[in-house]
Design brief:
alpha+beta; twelve-stranded antiparallel sheet; 12 strands; 34% strand
Length: 222
């Protein structure tokens, strides 16, 4: 009996390790992980979440966040991090319902929202805030998805944790100096305007320790 149980444990451990390793090879990683650097596409309007060192002329006066149709703009990269005052282990899968921060790679400011009105639609303003990745609790967003983890192929919603508003685009376009870029804002109601998909990026693989932890959890369940 002991031999049989040990054999079962060995087989299940091998399967878990094979599964994680398969998912971790290059673009085959099927879920979003902490520490990954990604571009997010609004599915309805086909624009990527974007920021730059251009400040709003109204509202908060903070760094503006927009949507752009350009695919290869480096100002559209965001790093997936743990919520404020929390470390999310690099390579750990982001779970549905988990609260995260998105830090703009080129400026080090976090995706942020607050009760200011957005300049074009008068919805809730979305900005980039903080220095070197450190801002405040208004930088926190909750990932809303259907399964257990944030799948790369899945369209998800991002809910601003402090205000319950959803990251959205409804098509309003800016003039100069950011001509043609779309307004990004937050809205209380769920709609097709607030679905986002992960596109290009660098996805952090699960670490060896994470694989060992998963194997240990499996042992404890058998």
């Amino acid at each position: 009996m002991d031999c049989t149980i040990n054999q079962i444990r060995f087989v299940f451990s091998a399967l878990i390790l094979c599964c994680f390793c398969t998912l971790s090879r290059g673009t085959e990683l099927r879920f979003v992980t902490c520490g990954s650097v990604v571009k997010l596409l609004n599915s309805r309007h086909n624009v990527r979440l974007h920021s730059h060192d251009v400040r709003y002329g109204s509202g908060s006066g903070q760094q503006s966040v927009t949507g752009v149709t350009t695919v290869d703009d480096s100002n559209s990269y965001w790093t997936v991090r743990g919520k404020s005052n929390t470390v999310c282990q690099r390579g750990a899968a982001v779970k549905c319902g988990q609260t995260i921060r998105l830090t703009h790679v080129n400026t080090g400011r976090n995706l942020h929202s607050h009760r200011f009105s957005s300049p074009l639609s008068s919805n809730q303003e979305v900005s980039a805030f903080g220095d070197e990745g450190e801002g405040d609790l208004l930088d926190d967003w909750t990932v809303l998805c259907a399964g257990e983890v944030w799948e790369r192929e899945e369209a998800v919603r991002l809910r601003h944790t402090a205000t319950d508003a959803l990251l959205s685009v409804t098509g309003e376009q800016y003039g100069r100096p950011i001509n043609g870029q779309r307004e990004v804002h937050a809205m209380p109601q769920a709609s097709q305007h607030n679905f986002w998909r992960v596109m290009e990026g660098i996805f952090m693989k699960p670490s060896l320790q994470q694989l060992r932890t998963s194997s240990a959890q499996l042992h404890s369940e058998l």
